[in-house]
Amino acid sequence: MSEQHPILVTGATGKSGRRVVTRLRAQGHPVRAAARTGEHPFDWTDHTTWDAALRGVRAVYVVQLDGTKFVRPFLERAAAHGVRRVVLASGRGIDNPDYATDSNGVLDGVLDSEAAVRESGLEWTINRPGWFAQNFSEGFFADGVRAGELRLPTGDGAASFVDAEDIAAVVTAALTEDGHAGQTYELSGPAALTLTEVAATISEVTGRAIRYVPITTDHYVGELVQHGLPLADAEAFAHVLEPLRNNTDAYLSDGVHRALGRPPRTFAEFAKATAAAGGWPT
């Protein structure tokens, strides 16, 4: 691929997108960082922003908008602009009907996006990451870390948390190297951890007492509503946590090793690196 054409990164301000942008630029690749706010305006719901984002692009990282089916028409537009390669951000568990309750209607959109990528005629790669380790440092578990208590309805369940840096490394490789076309990479960390183990690791690297407090789903929903969240949204959050509670995200995947030829980073390695960078919430 000619280096004169930029690589388009949608969702460029998100957990994986901004890391992909950083890695691509560190390697000397021209990047068009696209998001609703930031360097290059891009809005999935505003089709008038699509052409400007795609013009002259050779490869694109697609971070879809949950609950929508915009990827198929977007890829048709991309092909018309001469895009040759696409990497899709998907998720683990989409082909497992027992993975979690889909109360927000996200699954249909994700399945349609994967089908659209495979049928696009482009060189395609699909990434299916599990739970991000960064959910504890900059995601929806960060408030619990800040408060010193992870109050969650997840029992003694475990998950194989994956470092977003590994996700970004796989995406970057698929965007810039040969050998990844037609691959679906399921991404996980190297081991499944309970929330008790996660809290202990964070406590060790931060020097703060962080503890996991298991609560019932009803109690969790009630606490979210008490903090101002609408009941439907609170129940949806509880459904999102089902894979942790039911151990359906505890299995290990080999995508990082297949894509990069190395094992994924451990949660402890992620936690130490985050502490060294001053990234833990206080």
Automatic annotation (TrEMBL):
Domain named NAD(P)-binding: residues: 11-177
InterPro entries registered for this protein in UniProt: Ergot_Alk_Oxidoreductase, NAD(P)-bd_dom, NAD(P)-bd_dom_sf
Taxonomic superkingdom: Bacteria
Coiled coil spans: none
Record's protein name: NAD(P)H-binding protein
Source organism per UniProt: Streptomyces buecherae
